[in-house]
Design goal:
By secondary structure, the protein is α/β, with parallel strands linked by helices. It contains four helices and 15 strands. The strands form three sheets. It has a seven-stranded mixed sheet. Strands 10-11-12-13-14-15 form a six-stranded mixed sheet, with helices on one face. Strands 3-4 form a two-stranded antiparallel ribbon. β12 and β13 form a beta hairpin. It is globular. The chain binds zinc ion. Zinc ion binds next to loops.
Length: about 200
């Protein structure tokens, strides 16, 4: 667990390890953002990540039952793996929900979550991809797979997996314009001015 501001806890960073361009290990980041004293979670990794995520929730001083809501940047399997562990309501973009054949639990995400947490549409990697903007001491964006790694940011390339490259690049620019810190879907968090 890594606390990056008073109200932002990285339960686990995202990973994406490629072996000669073949992905061998992948799982999303999982992040707690605070709405006043209530924690919400952005993305929940893969199901085997539960031990790490649940340990990190405890380390942050919470229990899984304290979680107010779960927001999924999109509904790929490596971002929703531990959703079921939480009793809280889960939210994603309606276009993502529409693609599920038997959705019983994911609700359309409102665009405003609290006075300092909002949702922006960042399609391209998937049709209904969203990013979570947290206007804390600094502006933090949980970018999911819209900017999946720091390398994507540095090299200014859209996610390798995408449904629409042009939209993916527009989403990249949208995030870049507002974020001071990015918590990407598959990498450690970073400051935008950082190039190392
Ligand atoms: Zn994805």
């Amino acid at each position: 667990m890594q606390k990056i501001t008073d109200s932002t806890y990285i339960l686990k960073p995202g990973v994406l390890v490629r072996d000669d361009k073949k992905i061998i290990r992948y799982a999303s980041s999982s992040v707690i953002l605070m709405i006043d004293e209530f924690p919400l979670i952005v993305d929940t990794g893969l199901s085997p990540d539960w031990k790490t995520i649940s340990g990190a929730i405890k380390e942050a001083g919470f229990s899984k039952d304290d979680i107010l809501m779960v927001i999924n940047t999109h509904l790929h399997v490596d971002h929703i793996g531990c959703n079921k562990k939480f009793g809280a309501k889960k939210y994603a973009h309606p276009l993502e929900i529409k693609q599920l054949s038997n959705n019983t639990e994911i609700l359309p995400c409102p665009s405003k979550i609290s006075k300092n947490i909002s949702i922006i549409e960042t399609p391209g990697h998937s049709n209904g991809h969203i990013s979570v903007v947290f206007r804390d001491e600094v502006v933090i964006v949980c970018s999911g797979d819209a900017i999946p790694t720091k390398n994507n940011y540095i090299e200014r390339v859209p996610p390798r997996i995408h449904v629409n490259k042009k939209l993916a690049m527009e989403s990249f620019c949208k995030i870049e314009k507002i974020a001071e810190i990015i918590i990407p879907g598959h990498d450690e968090w970073f400051y935008l001015d950082s190039t190392t």
